[in-house]
Specification:
Layout: E1 2-3, E2 36-37, E3 46-47, E4 56-61, H1 69-84, E5 88-93, H2 97-109, E6 114-118, H3 123-132, E7 138-141, E8 153-158, H4 160-174, E9 179-184, H5 189-205, E10 210-215, H6 225-237, E11 242-246, H7 251-261, E12 264-267, E13 280-286, H8 288-301, E14 307-310, E15 317-319, H9 337-352
Parallel strand pairs: 2-3, 4-5, 4-6, 6-7, 7-8, 8-14, 9-10, 9-11, 11-12, 12-13
Antiparallel strand pairs: 1-14, 13-15
Helix pairs in contact: 1-8, 4-5, 4-9, 6-7
């Protein structure tokens, strides 16, 4: 769903610039990577697909992809666009603002059809370069400038609260203690978009449920699994048996605590059920392989708006248990077909507008 006006600046607008390099947790630094390889080349090298005569799409990351599945999903999405439109895909991995700017300069020199950037770390840089190079098309995933968005810059944002609501409903149906909760990275409206919608879904399916929310905080809230584990363990010790982990690279700590306590955790962005088999019930999905080709296609047709919102209806968001391949997901909810049936109905109602998950940010 395209919107006519930029409406969000993401976490940076909420005072999170200090966390710019911790929101995405990757492996070791690799810096600029511009060497073309095949379509299935290793992450970190520039990857190509299709023919040299086709369009060129370049993907820039704020951190090394490493084990960061969210950044990897962006790479997958750009490669999917290249395959769909008969072109090439290249990836340049950053590690800090200097390398991000260097990679942007290198990408500009190649004059690609589209430069795709990801996360709020790139918001100011993408806007700056879009202003400097008005003939170059830019796409920013997961954020957008608060104002002054150049006409050649397109944003794709997610309605995370829709998928979070479904996970909450799942927790409300499955809890045995009538206590559900969330461990979030930081106590800000954007994180509450997940945690509050989760609480709403739980309460609407089980009025007896009491919800609690804890936040990791500190210097590295998105990359502090030890602190996250402590929070989740404390929550489980007081009776909470379904815990939503909303903390990116810190989520592993929540999963470890859930496994130790014999309770169920939930993940975000990608399928994290294999990360702690038997302890992770489900998770939200941000489907880059759908979003990026869709948005690039709309741009090429002149149909894209400045800000393009993706939720359940557009196929940009989903939950693992209702998405393709769910039977092999290792999510524990797959053992509860009755719950899956309810989730399917609720998803349809959200798409139809019959249910409105809470959005404390009012973003999109």
């Amino acid at each position: 769903m395209a919107k006519s006006r930029p409406i969000r600046r993401g976490w940076a607008a909420l005072g999170l610039a200090v966390f710019a390099l911790t929101a995405a947790c990757g492996g070791s630094a690799t810096g600029n990577s511009g060497e073309a390889t095949g379509a299935t080349g290793a992450a970190g090298g520039a990857t190509g697909a299709g023919t040299a005569a086709g369009p060129l799409y370049i993907y820039l990351t704020n951190d090394p992809i490493g084990v960061n599945k969210f950044l990897e999903s962006g790479k997958t999405g750009v490669e999917a666009a290249a395959a769909q439109f008969g072109g090439q895909a290249k990836v340049y991995e950053g590690q800090d603002e200097t390398s991000m700017r260097q990679n942007m300069e290198a990408a500009i020199e190649e004059q690609p059809d589209v430069i795709v950037t990801i996360t709020f770390d790139f918001t100011d840089i993408t806007k700056e370069f879009a202003e400097r190079y008005p003939d170059q098309t830019f796409v920013l995933i997961d954020d957008c400038p608060a104002e002054g968005q150049p006409a050649n810059m397109y944003c794709a944002v997610f309605r995370e609260h829709e998928a979070a609501y479904l996970l909450g409903a799942e927790a409300g149906l499955l809890t045995k203690t009538n206590q559900t909760g969330s461990v979030g990275a930081v106590d800000i409206p954007f994180i509450h978009r997940y945690t509050d919608a989760f609480a709403q879904g739980s309460a609407e399916q089980n009025p007896k449920v009491k919800d609690s929310q804890l936040f990791i905080g500190g210097q590295n809230p998105f990359s502090d699994p030890a602190r996250a584990k402590e929070q989740a363990a404390a929550m489980a010790a007081t009776g909470t048996d379904h815990i939503f982990a909303v903390a990116s690279g810190s989520n592993g700590g929540v999963f470890e605590a859930a496994a130790a306590a014999g309770v169920t955790a939930y993940g975000v962005d990608v399928n994290q059920c294999p990360d702690q088999v038997g302890a992770v019930g489900d998770g939200t999905l941000k489907l880059m392989d759908t979003l990026i080709p869709d948005l690039i296609g709309k741009i090429q047709k002149g149909e894209a708006g400045p800000v393009n919102s993706y939720g359940l209806a557009e196929g940009g968001m989903d939950i693992v248990s209702l998405h393709e391949g769910a039977s092999a997901s290792l999510c524990t909810v797959m053992d509860h077909p009755d719950v899956l049936a309810v989730l399917t109905t609720l998803k349809d109602k959200v798409i139809a507008g019959e249910i409105t998950p809470v959005d404390p940010t009012g973003l999109n």
